[in-house]
Design brief:
2 domains; globular; 8-stranded mixed beta sheet; alpha/beta; single chain; 51% helix; 10 strands; Rossmann fold
Length: 586
């Protein structure tokens, strides 16, 4: 065993310990150490769609002694797993909890906006279970999941006891207008720093919503709504309460302060079999477990790559890189700053403009993914132009050529096979972990999920554009930004490239959230894309690390481009909403 193979073997052992150790912690916590039975469910609805979800059944629930139930519905471009803080805490308090993938999300059939966003389907299914007390059912939803809950409450008015929505509102996108009587017993969790205030409550910032006409009408008051005050009567079904934790829109489901109000309202409006203080929360251990597993998964990709490069089949890919011929000194800093800034500067505008040129439909059925694809292609084109300009003005004199840019002539097909095996091994690891522990690899809004069959077809459409971007991405990092006269290898190169790849987006998010936390609206009022940018901050540095490692092992940008193209396409498509039924050959 050579030194490189030995290091990769050790890294793989560490990665597997993290994946399986984290997965074990996560599954023990979400099942309350065996006191709650956790099962995946699939059920058909009237229009023929299949709905997927996860059902939490505590040991106290049976057909002879039905337990109160809760429907937990996630927001846009999420899945049932983002509701796990709520589901874990309510199930350990004795509630039967159903967390669904909304239509077009996770493993539920598209399109994304079918069936009233999924609330009607979920409530109907939960009410059909013999071990659920149908006189005590709470509807709970975050963001669009709140609209789904409100629509279900209007369609099945006698099918629920109370409702609690986080980061959501009445009278938006099909959700009926709120009144002092509708919906029944409403708990509203609206964070102090919610990014969607203009959309939800027609006010520039979240704190102003309390005095807005829309919220005052819902609470039946002429004065600004008071946080923590009980309006109306639970017994009469007219109860209202506003909670305002000091978190953001997505902070509602990743902080104890955001989760506690949901627990409080559910226990206030029903009889909890095992009541506990809202502050008594164990779900962070589950989130920590899946985060550890996510780190292990990333490390495993490096380990798989290293082991394959040490094998006889892929040893020809392992070559020394050509002598560096990139920018150096002050010129390097200018090029690095441009490389970091341009993707962030173009992010909002290009994502928005892409929708004007590429319609959402069977061939491009995911609007956010299509926007990111357009952004990647535009930035790839800009980077290529700047790279050619650098080559003409100085790179050629430095001796830059195809080899110095990492464009080796041979090994193209072998690089594709290599990438398929590396990413395929990572996919198999996720499948094994998910089968054992019923969890994916995630932290907060960052999640690596298995693809459904439809998502796998969708990924084929987006694969080549993303791979083309990562090809140019690699040429810039390992050609133009590999300083002439230096090896620029090892940890230093990996850290520098990761900072270049993600630095612009870190600054962008700091600008956005410093304004929000100071009581102002977002500087660029694009709340959804701002939240999506957190995933870009994760993906681009990881891609830079993989690209740098593989370039240093192979002297070529092709293996890194294909590995990143496959992984990033898989990651994005599996985690996005599908707004249209995708194309199919069958």
């Amino acid at each position: 065993m050579d030194r490189g193979t030995g290091r990769s073997t050790f890294l793989l052992v560490v990665a597997l310990l993290l994946v399986f150790g984290g997965g074990l912690i996560a599954t023990l916590v979400q099942s309350d150490f065996g006191a709650v039975r956790v099962t995946e469910v699939r059920f058909a609805v009237d229009d023929g769609r299949m709905v997927h979800g996860k059902l939490f059944v505590p040991s106290n629930a049976s057909a002879s002694a039905p337990a109160p139930g809760v429907v937990a519905i996630h927001g846009y471009i999420n899945s049932h797993e983002t509701q796990s803080p709520y589901t874990i805490e309510l199930a350990r308090r004795g509630y039967v909890v159903l967390a669904i993938d909304r239509p077009g999300h996770g493993y539920s059939d598209p399109p994304a906006f079918a069936g009233g966003f999924g609330g009607i389907d979920a409530l109907g299914y939960l009410r059909s279970l013999p071990f659920v007390d149908t006189d005590q059912i709470v509807l709970s939803g975050h963001s669009v999941g709140g609209w789904a809950s409100l629509i279900a409450a209007a369609v099945i008015p006698d099918g629920y006891t109370s409702i609690v929505v986080s980061g959501s509102s009445t009278g938006t996108f099909g959700a009926p207008d709120g009144t002092p009587e509708y919906p029944r017993n409403l708990g509203l969790v609206y964070a102090q720093y919610d990014e969607f205030s203009e959309l939800m409550w027609l006010t520039p910032t979240a704190p102003e919503a309390r005095a807005g006409e829309k919220m005052r009408t819902l609470f039946g008051t002429d004065a600004p709504v008071e946080v923590g005050r009980l309006y109306g009567s639970i017994e009469d079904g007219t109860a209202r309460m506003l909670y305002s934790p000091a978190v953001t829109h997505t902070g509602n489901h990743i902080t104890t302060a955001g989760v506690a109000p949901v627990i409080d309202w559910v226990q206030r409006t029903t009889q909890a079999p095992f009541p506990l203080p809202p502050s008594d929360q164990v779900w962070p251990w589950k989130e920590g477990g899946t985060a550890v597993a996510l780190v292990g998964f990333i490390l495993a990709l490096f380990a798989f790559a290293g082991l394959l490069l040490g094998s006889r089949a892929f040893a020809p890919l392992a070559q020394r890189s050509a002598p560096a011929a990139g920018a150096s000194g002050f010129g390097w800093w200018i090029a690095a700053l441009i490389a970091a800034a341009v993707p962030a500067v173009t992010y909002f505008r290009v994502n928005d403009e892409t929708a004007n040129y590429i319609a959402t439909g069977p061939w491009f059925p995911q609007s956010i993914t299509t926007g990111l694809m357009g952004w990647a292609l535009v930035n790839g084109a800009i980077s290529l132009v700047l790279l050619l300009l650098w080559y003409v003005l100085g790179g050629r004199r430095n001796g830059a050529g195809l080899a110095a840019l990492g464009l080796r002539v041979g090994g193209f097909l072998r690089a594709i096979g290599f990438a398929v095996l590396v990413v395929g091994a990572g996919y198999a690891l996720l499948a094994l972990s998910q089968g054992l522990f019923q969890t994916d690899f995630r932290f907060w809004v960052l999640a690596v999920k298995l693809l459904s069959a439809e998502q796998a077809r969708i990924a084929l459409v987006y694969l080549l554009p993303f791979t083309a971007f990562f090809l140019v991405f690699g040429m810039v990092l390992h050609g133009q930004l590999r300083p002439k006269g230096s090896t620029h290898e090892g940890a230093d190169a990996m850290i520098a490239n990761a900072l270049i790849a993600g630095g612009g987006f870190v600054v962008l998010l700091l600008v956005q959230y410093l304004a929000l936390f100071s009581g102002q609206p977002l500087v660029i009022v694009e709340p959804l894309l701002t939240i999506v940018a957190f995933q870009v901050v994760f993906l681009l540095p990881v891609a830079a690390l993989l690209s740098t490692y593989l370039f240093e092992r192979t002297g070529s940008v092709w293996p890194g481009a294909w590995v990143n193209g496959l992984f990033v396409t898989w990651y994005i498509v599996a985690g996005q909403a599908t707004q249209a039924v995708p194309w199919s050959l069958f």
